[in-house]
Amino acid sequence: GQQLNQSPQSMFIQEGEDVSMNCTSSSIFNTWLWYKQDPGEGPVLLIALYKAGELTSNGRLTAQFGITRKDSFLNISASIPSDVGIYFCAGTSNFNKFYFGSGTKLNVKP
Amino acid sequence: EAQVTQNPRYLITVTGKKLTVTCSQNMNHEYMSWYRQDPGLGLRQIYYSMNVEVTDKGDVPEGYKVSRKEKRNFPLILESPSPNQTSLYFCASSYRGLGTQYFGPGTRLLVL
pLDDT 10s digit of each residue in chain B, 112 long? Predict the structure, then answer.
């Protein structure tokens, strides 16, 4: 199957710092999605990107759909303790098959 | 409340004993899907369904079966579970063609 490389695998940051993570694919996607998973729960959609080059924000979160359609980036500004969790990228070409990255575990020190 | 429900939430079973994990959504979504989550591997798609009676394989379908007889339900069947199917399973649903999936709370399965 398709491989999505997500980095970094984990991050330890201080409250108030900005965070960046990214995802690359060996294939082109038409849609990139970013999810957050809290312990013991299912992933929750944060941002959906539908067009190459698109930059979309959701509060302190900003995500970009790479120009090559093979990558995507998520930035979190001014992190707070409730940002703690695992962040996943996902890509799809046809809205039927979805491929997920291995996740970035974010830890925020108050 | 719009939601995806899964049952059971936790299950311990033995090798070879058939089991079914149920999934139900109340949002009238056409699309439903099953994933398994293993440490370091993220989520991998097992099967998906584009609508009633329409199902197809995801990336890791071996050892699993699904059926979609009604729009709201999409059960996952393990006919002869093996220890390598020990995992955390998620069901998800969405309107077809949108990709914005809503996930259930997960089912943690241990096969001894």
Answer: 889 999 999 999 999 999 999 999 999 999 999 999 998 888 999 999 999 999 999 999 999 999 999 999 999 999 999 999 999 999 999 998 778 899 999 999 999 9
- What one-character DSSP code corresponds to residue B83? G
Weakly modelled stretches of chain A, pLDDT under 50: none
Searching chain A, which residue's CA lies closest to the CA of residue B47?
A97
Tokens of B8: 């059971």
Q: Does B58 touch chain A (CB under 8 A)?
A: yes
Report how far residue A83's alpha carbon sits from residue A44's, in angstroms, rounded to the nearest whole number: 13
**Lookup result for tokens 């059926």:** B67
Point out which residues pair with A98 in neighbouring strands: A92
**Nearest-neighbour CA in chain B from A77: distance (Å):** 23
Using a CB-CB cut-off of 8 Å, the residues of chain A touching B43 are 43, 88, 90, 100
Q: How far apart are CA B109 and CA B112, in angstroms?
A: 10
Name which of A34, A21, A29, A24 is nearest A3 in CA terms.
A24
